[in-house]
Every structure is written in C-alpha cells, then in structure tokens.
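Re: the 187-residue chain
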Amino acid sequence: MRKVGLLGGTFDPPHIGHLLVAEEVFQALGLDEVWFVPSHDPPHKEASNTNVEHRVEMTQLAIKSNPHFSVSAIEMERSGISYTYDTVNELIQQFEDTVFYFIIGGDQVEYLPKWHRIDELLELVTFVGVKRRGHELKTPYPIEKVDIPMFEVSSTLVRDRFKFGGSTKYLLPEGVESYIKEHNLYE
C-alpha cells in the first residue's frame, strides 16, 4: 500500500510554509508522496479572488524541484464547494492501493468538529495535525501529530507584501514570485 499525504488549501499563493509542512510530514510519516490539492471553493473561508488556473500553476511551480510532491486538480474538476469528504472519497475510489493522510494546521484541528461529514471522513483518512502559533492540537478526534519547525508565513502576508510593495524574498519559491509579478497578481 502506498502512503500519500494530502495537503489542501487555496494556495493563493503557495509559499515556503506550505512546502515546509509537506516535507516535514513526508519525512516524519515515511510517506511515498505528498499531493497538493488546491481547493475550488473552500467551505470554511471566502473563495479566492485569484482564478483557479493561476493557483494551480503557482502550486506546480512551487513544488517542481521536489520529486515526491505533485498537484492534484481533483477539486478543480468539480464545481461547487470543495468538501474534503467528497475529495477523499473520490481519491479512494480511484486509488484503491493507497492510504491517505490529510495534513492540516492547528487552526483546522480545532475546527474539525464542524467539518462536513467528519465522522464518515475519519473512517476514510488519517488526519495529521501540525502546530500553528496560537493554536493547540486539541480535538476529540484521533489525529497524528507532527512537530515542524515554526515558520510564520501566510498567503495573506504574501498578498499584502505584493499589494503594498514589500519584499517577499525567502517567503516564496522564486518561480512563484516571478509568476506573480509576470501576471500582475495581488496588486
């Protein structure tokens, strides 16, 4: 059985923090791969203003130097709200020889009781929680915990830096930074 980590998010834009989390979980759990899953329309926050094609392309640029990372466009191929239950259920049907681990930050660990069909989802996937400042990994649900080096960056911070002319050096992979500038995103 293959072991695959799933890292979902809007990736608007993908940044070094996303890559760090994916690599640390990959190593800690001995995964075969980590798939980045850009969400189409996330249920827990406002939809992204950046179109889907840009977010997928930026994510592909962000991961291109890592052979055990890939992008799954499964949620892009569906319209409507991107519920994790639907995504995982579809992946399990497509990849019967695979065990999936869904990687989430501490903020989402606390939010798990509100997730769509959480009890059924827990039968399909193992959740992996990573710490985020200001959040504990406390939940009534079973999760694997992975300690990662703290790196405080967010997509909101990156977008604000572009909007107000600040530096994004060392916050983004160079290819993503170039792509954003080339397409005048976040101005």
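The chain has one domain: 2-152.
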